[in-house]
Amino acid sequence: MKVISFDLDGTIADSSFADAFWEEEVPALYARKNQLSIDEAWRIVKRSYEEVGSEDIRWYQPEYWFNLFDLDEDVTEVLRRVKDRVNLFSDALEVIEALYQKYDLIIISNAPREFIEIELEGIEDYFSASFSCTSDFGVVKKSGDAYLRVCSKIGVAPGDVLHLGDNPIFDYEVPRSIGMRALLIDRTNDHGGSGLKDMREILRMEPFSKDLKVKR
């Protein structure tokens, strides 16, 4: 293996940051704009999210929602207001530090580019590249084609990449279908124990166990 690829939300960070933006900040802005209560604003905003749905690329695009709701604020400034809600998993940080000694690390995420840049602040130097399927490739899920495009952009064969992520379809089955290696991260045992409950288990596997020095 030459490259280790990480999913972001659910793998390196939990959902607190994204939830704060979509479920708190956007409804609060809509409430102020339209002189509504937070509860009424959230009902309207949530209904709008549901009407578009996660299979539509617009669902992932902050600018689309700010235009739809006629919100005047800058998306990045609003995201920075909830930057303190970014919560990185300690086991992921330890693994990233260890793997960085020997491997090229990248991010492949469905999150919009604006989210990725803020969530990675402070650890961005560990990663040689980051890819947003929604912002960079215009697709709503990590398809086989998206993974192949990443491999092409960084100049490696799929078999040279190990991908780590928490979705059993898009982080495990799809990358394996195009020849990548993949490991499922399942901290909450949602997938019948088929994944790793602690990402640090990777460091006990070959080839990592032989040539990595893990800082404690």
UniProtKB/TrEMBL annotation:
Molecular function, one GO term: hydrolase activity
SUPFAM superfamilies: HAD-like (SSF56784)
Listed InterPro entries: HAD-like_sf, HAD-SF_hydro_IA, HAD_sf, S-2-haloacid_dehalogenase
Pfam annotation, one family: Hydrolase
Keywords for the protein's UniProt record, in alphabetical order: Hydrolase
Domain of life assignment: Archaea
PANTHER family found in the cross-reference section: HYDROLASE, HALOACID DELAHOGENASE-RELATED
Stated family: Belongs to the HAD-like hydrolase superfamily.
Name of the protein described by the UniProt record: HAD family hydrolase
Taxonomic source organism: Candidatus Syntropharchaeum butanivorans
